[in-house]
Amino acid sequence: MYNKDKVALTPPLGWNSWDCYGPAVNEEQLLGNAAYMAEHLKSHGWEYVVCDIQWYEPEAGKYHWDYNRFAQLCMDENGRLLPAENRFPSAANGAGFKPIADQVHAMGLKFGIHIMRGVPRLAVHNRLKIKGTDISCHTIAHRNSICAWNTDMYGVDADREGAQAYYDSIFELYASWGIDYVKVDDICNVKATPLEEYSARREIEMIRKAIDGCGRNMVLSLSPGPAVIKEAWHLAKHANMWRITDDFWDNWPSLLEMFWRCEVWQAHVKPGQYPDCDMLPLGHISITEDGKGHYTNFTKPEQVTLMTLWGIFRAPLIMGGELRDNDAFTLSLLTNDELLHLNQHGGTPLQLFRDETKAAWLNFVGETPYIALFNLQAEPAEVSASLTELVGDASYTAVELWTGETTAVQGEITAQLEPHGAKIFKLI
Amino acid sequence: MYNKDKVALTPPLGWNSWDCYGPAVNEEQLLGNAAYMAEHLKSHGWEYVVCDIQWYEPEAGKYHWDYNRFAQLCMDENGRLLPAENRFPSAANGAGFKPIADQVHAMGLKFGIHIMRGVPRLAVHNRLKIKGTDISCHTIAHRNSICAWNTDMYGVDADREGAQAYYDSIFELYASWGIDYVKVDDICNVKATPLEEYSARREIEMIRKAIDGCGRNMVLSLSPGPAVIKEAWHLAKHANMWRITDDFWDNWPSLLEMFWRCEVWQAHVKPGQYPDCDMLPLGHISITEDGKGHYTNFTKPEQVTLMTLWGIFRAPLIMGGELRDNDAFTLSLLTNDELLHLNQHGGTPLQLFRDETKAAWLNFVGETPYIALFNLQAEPAEVSASLTELVGDASYTAVELWTGETTAVQGEITAQLEPHGAKIFKLI
Amino acid sequence: MYNKDKVALTPPLGWNSWDCYGPAVNEEQLLGNAAYMAEHLKSHGWEYVVCDIQWYEPEAGKYHWDYNRFAQLCMDENGRLLPAENRFPSAANGAGFKPIADQVHAMGLKFGIHIMRGVPRLAVHNRLKIKGTDISCHTIAHRNSICAWNTDMYGVDADREGAQAYYDSIFELYASWGIDYVKVDDICNVKATPLEEYSARREIEMIRKAIDGCGRNMVLSLSPGPAVIKEAWHLAKHANMWRITDDFWDNWPSLLEMFWRCEVWQAHVKPGQYPDCDMLPLGHISITEDGKGHYTNFTKPEQVTLMTLWGIFRAPLIMGGELRDNDAFTLSLLTNDELLHLNQHGGTPLQLFRDETKAAWLNFVGETPYIALFNLQAEPAEVSASLTELVGDASYTAVELWTGETTAVQGEITAQLEPHGAKIFKLI
Amino acid sequence: MYNKDKVALTPPLGWNSWDCYGPAVNEEQLLGNAAYMAEHLKSHGWEYVVCDIQWYEPEAGKYHWDYNRFAQLCMDENGRLLPAENRFPSAANGAGFKPIADQVHAMGLKFGIHIMRGVPRLAVHNRLKIKGTDISCHTIAHRNSICAWNTDMYGVDADREGAQAYYDSIFELYASWGIDYVKVDDICNVKATPLEEYSARREIEMIRKAIDGCGRNMVLSLSPGPAVIKEAWHLAKHANMWRITDDFWDNWPSLLEMFWRCEVWQAHVKPGQYPDCDMLPLGHISITEDGKGHYTNFTKPEQVTLMTLWGIFRAPLIMGGELRDNDAFTLSLLTNDELLHLNQHGGTPLQLFRDETKAAWLNFVGETPYIALFNLQAEPAEVSASLTELVGDASYTAVELWTGETTAVQGEITAQLEPHGAKIFKLI
Lengths: 428, 428, 428, 428
Known about the structure:
The structure is a homotetramer. By secondary structure, the first copy, chain A, is α/β, with parallel strands linked by helices.
C-alpha cells in the first residue's frame, strides 16, 4: 500500500453533478445536494460532493450539454481557473471554492472538483506567468496534446521548465480552498508507450507529486476511460480510482458491457486503488435549463443489477442523479447497508463465470462469502453457481441482500432472476 | 483533364526556400535567388520562386530550424496572415507580398508561397472577424484538428458557417498579391475515412474552391507526405502536385526509399497531376543565421541518381539549395536539357523492375523510349534491362543523357554503374 | 503494355459456374451453359465459359455451399488435381478437362478453370513427387500459409527448390487440356510487405512465369478481393484482372459499396489490366442439389445500375446465373450492344462525383463521351452532372442506352432516376 | 484460489530440455539430468524434469534446431502421439513415457512433457478415429488454425463433436504414464476476442477440463508468450503458469526487456498462478549433435540480475542448461537458499521504480521485506531506493543475499552495482 492509498481505504461514496447538470451546475444545486446527503445518506457512509466540469466557464450550459468552443474562461493572473461568479456567487472577491467547501465541511461531508489536465489555452496565448515564477504559460504547453472533445486546455509538456511548478500552483490553490477530491479528466484512456511523443503517464506523475506536496489529502480520480489494462500498475501507483469505461449512461448495452470490463480489471481492486465504473445514472438525470430531465431509463431489475455489480466489484459509488428528486426506490438503492458493507469492506472480487446469458461474482468480507448472480438475458432465467470449489461443501443460509429472503444452500446456489436482473447472497 | 490541370501541363520547375533557409528566409534571399534563376535557369524552363513556411512569424529562425511555440504571428484584423515586415521590408504599409511578386514577375518568373491549412490560433482566441462577415474566427476552428508539429493554426471545420468564406478571404488576398503557386502544408498525409471526425478531404475541397473563385491561376501543391495511395483519385482531382514522401533530405536511405514510393505511385503521373518527391536538397543547404550550411551529403553518383529518378518519373523539380552558391556540378544537374525534356514532355512512367540491388524505369517522349538503370548497391555493378517486351527487338542507338556516350543496343541494354549510381538512355 | 495484356485487349466477357452452382457444378451444366452462350450471347461478344472451385472434389456440394474439410481430392501421382469423374465423366482415363475444352472450343468459345493457389495438402502429407523431379511436394509447402476458408491446399514457398517446377507442372497440364482462362483464388487480398514471411507476390510471380512458359495464352484472373490498392502496380504487371471486392452478391449494400471501390481503382483500368468487380449475380442463382435457387434479389433498376457501373467502369463481365434460365429481362441486360461497345472499347473511366445520394461517371469511346448518372437513394431522385469542365459547352444529343430515349443537352445533363436506378447517355 | 492452484502452491522449480537440446533430447539426457537434480538440487527444492518439444519425431534434430516440415510423427491408432523409440528406447512396446516417469519418480522427483495444442495433421489426413469414439480426427481439426512455426498439428475446433473427447483421450494417456507437468505450446500469445473465429481460450478450457478429469494432478504451463495482459484473469483461472515473453535467451536486451514485462504483470503473481519469464539459459546450452554448445553469454553480474529478478518476482525457475555440465558458479546460482526461500514463500511483488538506468523491486516473506536493486546500465552505478513509504523509518540490518554482506539501513537503501548487476537485501 502506498501512502496515497490511505485517503481512500474504502471505495469513495459520493455524488457528482455531471449526470444531472452536465457542465452547468451552480452553487445552489451543489449545496442542495450536499444538504440532502447530510440528511439522508451520510449515516450510510456517503461523504463526497463533487462539482464536475467547466465551473470556470460563465456560459456553460448555454449550448445545453455541449461545450462552448474556445470559451472565455475565468482565471487569475497566473492562469489558474476560478469559479464563474455568475454561477457560484460565493466565489466573488477571489474566494474561489472555499466558501462552498467550508459549508460542505460544516455538514460533515467532503468536497471535490473536476479539472481538465493541462493549462488553459487562453493563459498560453495571453502569456500569463506561472505563479511564483517568471515563466510564461506558453512555454509549458505541449505542442501536440489537446483534448479531443473540449477546447479549454493544452496538455502540459513535462519536459519543459515550469511544468511541475504550474501543477503545484493549482493544487496549492485547491488546498487553500479545502478540496478533498479531484477528478482529473482527459487523462485516463491514453496509451503510453516509448514511441509516442505525448504520454499521459507524465502528467499523472506531475499531478501526483503536486497533490503530495500541497499539504492536503485529496482523493485522485482519473477520467475518462476506458483505461488501458497495460497501465494498471501505473494507475494503481499514482491514483485512487481510474475509469475503466467511457461515459456510462442509462442503457442496457452499456451496463452489459461493464461485465466484461469488470472481468478484465478484477485483480486490480485493492485498498486505495479502485477501477472505476463511472457514476450511477439513477433517479432524475440529464436536467436542462428548464429544470426538466428524465428519470433513469433503467428498469428496476437493471438498477438492482447495476448496484449489485458495482457493489460486489467494489467500485466507487458516485451517485449521478439530483438527490433531492430521489423517489423511494432510488433512495433504497443507495441505502442498502448490507451491500454497502460488502462494497466498503470486501476483498478483491472474483468473477465465477460469464457468458452471453449469465454471470456470477464472488467476494468475501472477512470469511463471509457473498455471491451475486446475474441474468443477462431479456427473459426471466434461472442462474446457478457451484459453491464447491471456492466455498466448499458446507451448508449455508443464503440471505438475499435486496429482499432479505433466506434459503438453505449446499454445494450450489440458484436464483430465479427477472430479465436483466440480479440477486446477491450473503452466506452465513 | 480538369480545368485546374491546365496551370501545370508539365511538371513545375522552380526553387523553394526551405532546404536552404528553413523558416527564416528573407526578402533579399528570395529576390537574390529569383535573379539567379532568371539569369541561369529560366532559359532551361525553370520559373517558380517559392517562399516556404512562417513568413508571418517575426521571430522565425530564432530557434534555428525549430518553430517557436505559440508564436505571435503577423495578421490583419480579419485573421489573415501577413509577411513579417522585419524580414520582408517591402511588405510594409499592408503591401503584403505584392512588391516581391511584382519584382519576380518582372524577371519573367512566377512567385509562390507556403501556407498551413487552417485559421491562426491567435485569430481564434482573439475572436477576429472573417473578412466581409460578422462571423468570428473561433466559430470555424475545428475542435479536434491541430498540426502535430507546429502550433500556429487550428484546422477549419467545413461544417461551420464561415469556413469557406475564410478560405475565400485568404485566397482573395493572395490573388491581389499576384501569387502563382501555393504550397499548402499539414494536409496531405491524412487518411480520410467516414469514421474520422476530421477529414483532410474537406479542407482540400475548400481550398480548391477558393482558388477557382479567386480570379487567378495558381498551382496547388499539397504537403507533407506521405500521401495515402487510397486518396490518389481525390488528390488528382483537386491538386496539381502532392507529396508522396515525408520531408526528403540528403541521405541515401531516403533516396533509396523513394524508389518504392515511386513504384507505388507510377500510374498516377498525368498532365496537371504529379506525385511529388519533394525538393532537391542539392548544393548549399541547411544554412543558419551565420550564413553557413553544408553542401549536399549526396555523392555525385547519388545526385545523378536523384535527378534521373525525379526526371524519368516526371516529378516536379523544385531546387532546395541556395542557387547563388551553386558550383558547376550542381548547376549542370539543373541544366541537362535532354533530361528536362523528358521530365516535361514524357508520359506516364513505368518501373521495369526493382529489387534490393537494382531498378530500371521506362518512359517515352512521343515514340522515343528512355530507359534509366539504377545501381542500389554500395559497390559498382552492372545492371541490364530487357528491351524485348516493351520496346521490341529493333536496333537502337542509346545516348546516355549525362555523358553523351552512345552505344548500339538490341534486345537488351546494359550499363556499368558506380555505387548508388545511375545512367539514363535515350533510344534513337 | 505488357505481352500478357494482349490476351485480353478488351475486358473478358463470359460465364462462371459459382453464382449458380457453387462448388458442385458438373459437366452437363458446363456444356449446357456453353451451348446457350454460343446460341444467344456469342454474337454480342461473350466467349469465356469458366468452371469454378473444387472440380477435383468428388463430394463437393454434399455440404451444400460449404466446403468439405480435409477432403479426399482427385489428383495424379504428381499431386496435380484432376476433375472428379463422378461429376465430369469425360475426364475418365486421365483425359482431364480436355474433352470439355474441346467441345467448348468447337462452339467457338473459350474454356477456363478455377484453381486455388498452392499444393494439395494430401500431396504434401503423402509425399508425392513433383512431375519431372525427385522433389517431394512436402518440401515446397509453405509452413505458415494456408487459406482461411478452405482446407485443400498449402501455399507454395517460393524459396524452396521445386516451387516453380510445381507451378510449371500444373500449367503444362492445363495447357495440354486447352485451358484459356485461369481464375486463381486465395491470392488477391493479401498485403505483401517485406516484414511478412508469406507474400502473395511471390506466388503471383511464379504463376505468371508458369503461364508464360506453358505454351498457351491464358487470361489470368486473381481472387478474392478486396485487392490492396498499394499493390495495384504489381497486379497490373502480372495479371489481367484482379478482384477489388470480396464475393459480390445480390444485395444493395454490396452494390452501393462497389461505388467507392470503383472510385479508388478508377485510374487502373487499362488494356489487359482490369480491376474486377466480380461476377454478375443475375438471373437464376444459388441453385442447390434439388435444382432450385432463387432469382436475383436485385430490383430491375438495381440490375440496370449494376450493368451500367460495370459497363462504364469497364469491369470484366462474367455472368453468374444459370444462362438457360434467363428470362427476357436478364437476357436484355447481357445483350445491350451499345453498353457492351462502351465496356469493350472505352478508355480509363472517371468518376465525376459521388456522395451519399448520387454518383456520376464519365468515359469515352474515341471522342464520344458517355455519362452515367446514378441514384443511390431509396426514393426517386433527379441527378445532374455539369458537362462544362470535361466535355465543354457544345450542344449534344444524349441517347440513353437502356431506353433509346434522346434529349438535347448543353452544359449540363439531368435525369429522373428510379430508386437505386441509373441512366447512361451517349453524347453525339 | 482455485483447486487447480493447489498443485503449485509455490512457483515450480525444475529443469527443461529445450535450452540445451532443442527438439532432439533423448532418454539418456533426461535421466542424466534427473539424476543430477536428485543429487545436487532436490534438497534445495527443485523437483520437475521436463521433456520439451517433438519427442514424437524420430528425426528431430536432423535439421539442428529447426523443425522438420510435415514430419512423419509417431502416434497410436487414435492419433495420440508417442515417444520416438529411436530416441526413447524405454518407450518400446507401447510403454510411452511410463518407464522414464517411473524412474524419475523413484528419484523423488516429478516428470513433465511438452505438447503442442491441437491434433496431428497426419491423424487428420489419415482419418484416424478418436479413442473410444467413431469420430475421425479430421472432423475436429480447425479449418483455420495452425501454428505459425511448426507443421505438426492442426488446432482443435471446440465447436465440433469429439473435440473434448480428443483432449480427454490424450490426458488419459499422459495420466497413465504418470505425467506431473504439461507445458502446452502455441497457445499463450493468442488474443481472444469475440470477433475472431479461432480463440485460444476455447482450447485452454478444453485442456483444463481434460486435466481435471484425467485422475492425476498436473501443473499446467502455457507457452509461448508474450501472453496478452487482457487475458490475465482467464489465464489465472485455467493455468498455473503462463509465459509473458517470447523465447528468452542469453542476451542483455532480452533480459532488459523482462523488466517491463514484469512491471506489467506484477499484480498477477498469486499462489498457483505465475506469470512465467521462461527458462534460465544458464550454464551449458544450445548443444548440437556433436555434444557441443556454448556456456551462457550472460556475464556473471547479468546472471545475478536474472536470478534476482526471477527470484523476487516469484517466477517459476526452470533451469535450461545441461545440469551435468554446471560449473560451480552456475550451481551456486541455483542453490541460494535465501533467494529460493523468497521465491517460494514471498507475496505479490511490487516494482518500486524503473527507468532507463535502474529499477527496484520489493517483496515480503511474512513481515520481512526484501528489496532488489538493479543497474540497467553498461557502467557501474549507485542505485538507491527510499524505504520510507513502504517499509517505514525503522532501522534495519540489510543482508545481501548473494554475498552475505550486511549493512545498517534506515529510510533508504543504497548499493554500488556492477554493469548490468543487481543486489538483493533482506531487511531484518
